[in-house]
Structure prediction request, 386 residues.
Amino acid sequence: MRKLDITNNSVDLLLFRLFLLLSAFLIVCNASLAQNVSRTAGFVVYIDAGHGGKDPGCISNGIKEKDITLKIAQKVKEQCAILKPNLDIRLTRDDDTFIPLKDRIAQANKADADLFISIHCNYFRDPKVCGTETYVMGTHRLEENLEVAKRENASILLENNYSQHYDGYDPESTIGHIMLSLNQSAYLNQSLELADLVEKQQSISFNKNSRGVKQAGFVVLRNATMPAILFEAGYLSNIKEAEYLQSSEGQREISESLIRSIVGYKKLHGFHEEIIVAAVPQRVELNSMNPFKSQSDVKVLQVSLEEEEEEEEEEEEVYSVQIAASQGRPILQQAPHWHNITDLEVNQIDGFYKYTTGTFSDMSSAYEHLESLRRLGFKDAFLIKK
Prediction:
């Protein structure tokens, strides 16, 4: 057999180069195949711990938002390792690092993620205000929603050349926020579904005060190529809620409720693979740190993820839109926009007259009706559960 001579024979040199190219091609194919198998084997969810590094977020009662959001995000990943719900949880940051807002969603887009959840903590000048809120990208109708968006978007001021990266967007301009909020996502309906599941879990699983699903313009949700939400886990300006958010128990409860919401979303969209739940020791839920529980709520929780999902499915949610309320006497309804309501329902409860319209079994249809009513002139209309 003739020995290969790559220095003197041009044919042998050509064959040798072809051999190297073929080897490289096979290596790349194998790597790509392995990557595809890894991607399709799991349901990829990006958990974004808001703020970080030089951006502390809101600070109240001696607690920094960036620290709480990171601990909750890490807890989600830790709890998934225990509960094994077949989720591929990835974090935009796993330490106290400053990451530009555009790079957070870019990580999820590049990974072709299935969901994106940005975790934050809230703040309000009234220390009595408490509860969770979940936002999707959209127009903010209430001044309160605008203030939340302004505060969270202010992080870009810490970035270099932020005006170039965000098409001239000015986080200190009200007009800029209005223009940003018009950037509707192609995944709005799915985002609303996920947001609704998150808020339901807050009240169902741990008896927390849900302030509902809302819309506003958030930079971190801009350009998302998957359903994306921003979750406000609670108010640091409320001393009891701040203590709860800082506690290990509170962080575990919040992380578990997020996992249940994601599993519920998967099931809603046809992901029926078996969910493996590891053996979890029986535990008693004490109300020492959770401000939303009374002594009567102390109980032993042994319900698995699957059982909770089945219970939720049995309860059909029905939504309506409340357009107005009055105390003592009914509204005369003389304004022109009242004449466009053909299914007005008036209920008298505790001295208040409440005016509602529409009956819907799904969130997306209810939100469409809500938007049409706001366009008619009912600017303060909001969703309710019947």
Q: What stands out?
A: The longest strand covers residues 319-327.
